[in-house]
Amino acid sequence: MHELSLCRSIYGIVDQARSGRRVRAVNLQVGQLRQVIPETLTYCWGLLCTGGPLAGSELVVDHVPVVVGCRDCHASTTVAHALLLLCGSCGSAAVDIVSGEEFFLTSLDLEKES
């Protein structure tokens, strides 16, 4: 379960960045090819945050689909099955991954300093 390890890393980054403010939400973008289960990630976040300075914060995961760009016909295709990376227009396997490999902490929702 590498989601727990990922959450520990995110926790450290967020705890340092919050500068003592309360964190309401941590926003992530996770690509479909990252082999991360969003439900497990949010579950692990809850386990790590219980009773600590980030208690009550929510991990918001934005799922990024796999999109490929065809080198033959230049079409972009949102891939339905990540195991089949083909152009949806011409069927070519000569594609580049445009999105779907992301794992970004995009923003924090913090309470204003008092």
Summarize the structure.
This protein is α+β, with helices and mostly antiparallel strands. The chain has helices at residues 2-17, 38-49, and strands at residues 23-31, 58-64, 67-70, 76-78, 95-99, 103-110. It has a single domain (2-110), classed as hypothetical protein PF0899 fold (2-Layer Sandwich), CATH 3.30.2320.80.
Q: Can you characterise this structure?
A:
With 114 residues, this protein is α+β, with helices and mostly antiparallel strands. It has helices at residues 2-17, 38-49, and strands at residues 23-31, 58-64, 67-70, 76-78, 95-99, 103-110. The chain has one domain: hypothetical protein PF0899 fold, CATH 3.30.2320.80. The protein has a 3-stranded mixed β-sheet, covered by helices on one side. Helix 1 crosses helix 2. The protein starts with a helix and ends with a strand. The model has no long low-confidence stretch (mean pLDDT 94).
Secondary-structure topology with pairs:
Blueprint: H1 2-17, E1 23-31, H2 38-49, E2 58-64, E3 67-70, E4 76-78, E5 95-99, E6 103-110
Helix pairs in contact: 1-2
